[in-house]
Automatic annotation (TrEMBL):
In-chain residues carrying the UniProt-annotated modification N6-(pyridoxal phosphate)lysine: K63
Name by which UniProt lists this protein: Diaminopimelate decarboxylase
Organism (species): Christiangramia flava JLT2011
Residues reported to bind pyridoxal 5'-phosphate: G232, Y370
Example GO molecular function: diaminopimelate decarboxylase activity
Catalytic reaction list: meso-2,6-diaminopimelate + H(+) = L-lysine + CO2
Cofactor(s) named in the record: pyridoxal 5'-phosphate
Key words of the record: Amino-acid biosynthesis, Decarboxylase, Lyase, Lysine biosynthesis, Pyridoxal phosphate
Subunit structure, interactors included: Homodimer.
Gene: lysA
HAMAP family, sorted: LysA
Orn/DAP/Arg decarboxylase 2 N-terminal domain: residues covered: 38-280
Length: 425
């Protein structure tokens, strides 16, 4: 499919209707996460169509949404995985992903964990000099990718900007002489070079600037197989919101990448690690309204969930569109949508939403990335179910937790009433 058509394709997929979503809450209860497999597929195809290179590697960032069924879906499309823990590597293997298509980029982990991943066969990506020297000294024949910090500030939030000078991620580009001495002294095999500047990239010029830094660094390594540019592509969060122009980035970076490969004397693989870009827009989070509470200044819509299930608004200040799918044509009013956690727990202040009644179902958009994966049992609440909308049907891919799940790994102590009384005396 030509690149100019991929944008259209990505927005003309088989969509879940509000009727479908209401049916899901009736069958599976609320709150509940729902993911549209067709949207994930469309995003993957749009991304792959944007880059015209001989060898394109897409590694999905598992941390965004780690459900095994989602990993299996992406694997069926030909997608590899980007992992940050040995547990994510094992999830990928359980989902049937070939270890050669899994890249492992941890931060601050022990050498023992890296060795465990090495035994599993995944591509190792190291981001600090200490571990690089230790690993290279022990395993000089094992191919290693090196994560560079280009010192470029990118990303929509300070918590997700990881390529700047004060970041804990990557080996500083200014430490290249030290890095090269380690490579030379250990005789280690460097087969890839990597960067990740941050999430929600708005200006592709900044991304291309960082890419030039990575190209310059790559010249120091004579036996590379791939260059990994990370990801961080922005998706829209509301009507008319801006997003990363993937087609424009694809055209410009493809041209520059081909020029570099010609200069390098070898056709390298071009790699990316999208997470949010592939799954964010596929997700809907559905919650029931428990109570409408009118105060002197605000109308609160209190729902049957909280930041224990969807922490992004409280943690990042992120925006999720909220729609009343039970009364979509109702007169619009202003509401503050809040959760049931016993501290400030706000999803949206003074949102204009179709009239909300107790018992209505609200739908949160962009709930596919960093939503369920960051959910917790805070306040001893159960984590919700997950549904994959595939081939026009709802498929349960994670059961709702129960009280037994809360206590499963707790070890109870027995306190004798007699001994307690004796101590009291």
């Amino acid at each position: 499919m030509p690149a100019e058509n991929s944008f259209i394709f990505a927005r003309n997929y088989f969509q879940m209707t509000q009727k479908d979503l209401l049916s899901i809450t009736k069958e599976f209860g609320s709150p509940v996460y729902v993911y549209d497999a067709e949207k994930i597929t469309a995003q993957y195809q749009r991304l792959t169509n944007a880059f015209d290179v001989k060898n394109l590697r897409i590694h999905y960032a598992v941390k965004a949404l780690s459900n095994i069924s989602v990993l299996k879906l992406l694997n069926s499309l030909g997608c590899g995985l980007d992992t940050v823990s040995v547990q994510e590597v094992k999830l990928g293997l359980k989902a049937g992903v070939d270890p050669s298509k899994i890249i492992y980029t941890p931060n601050g982990v022990s050498l023992e964990e890296i060795e465990e991943v090495m035994q599993l066969g995944a591509q190792i990506n190291i981001d600090n000099l200490s571990i690089l020297e230790q690993f290279g000294s022990r395993y000089p024949e094992t191919p290693v990718c090196i994560r560079i910090n280009p010192h470029v500030m990118a990303g929509g939030n300070s918590k997700i900007s990881v390529g700047h000078i004060d970041s804990k991620f990557g080996i500083s580009i200014h430490q290249m002489p030290h890095l090269l001495r380690i490579v030379e002294n250990t005789g280690m095999h460097v087969n890839g070079i990597h960067m990740h500047t941050g999430s929600d990239i708005l200006d592709i010029g900044v991304f291309l600037h960082a890419s030039e830094i990575l190209f310059e660094a790559a010249k120091n390594f004579k036996d590379l197989d791939f260059i990994d540019f990370g990801s961080g592509f922005k998706v829209p969060y509301r009507e008319g919101d801006i997003e990363t122009d993937i087609e424009e980035l694809g055209a410009q970076l493809t041209k520059r990448f081909k020029e570099f490969c010609q200069q390098y004397g070898k056709d390298l693989a071009l790699a990316f690690e999208p997470g949010k870009y592939l799954v964010s827009e596929s997700g809907k989070f559905l919650a029931k309204v428990n109570v409408i509470k009118q105060t002197t200044s605000t109308v609160f819509a209190g729902i049957d969930t909280g930041f224990n299930h969807l922490i992004r608004p409280m943690f990042y200040g992120s925006h999720h569109e909220i729609t009343n799918i039970s009364n979509p044509s109702g007169k619009e009013r202003f509401y503050s949508v809040v959760g049931y956690i016993c501290e400030t727990d706000t999803f949206g202040n003074n949102r204009r939403i179709s009239e909300i009644r107790e018992g209505d179902i609200l739908s949160f958009s962009n709930a596919g990335a960093y939503c369920f994966s960051m959910a917790s049992n805070f306040n001893s609440r159960y984590r919700p179910a997950e549904i994959l909308w595939y081939d026009g049907k709802a498929h349960l891919i994670r059961e709702r937790e129960t009280f037994e799940d809360l206590t499963r790994h707790q070890v109870e102590m027995n306190f004798s009433e007699t001994k307690v009384a004796e101590k009291a005396n």
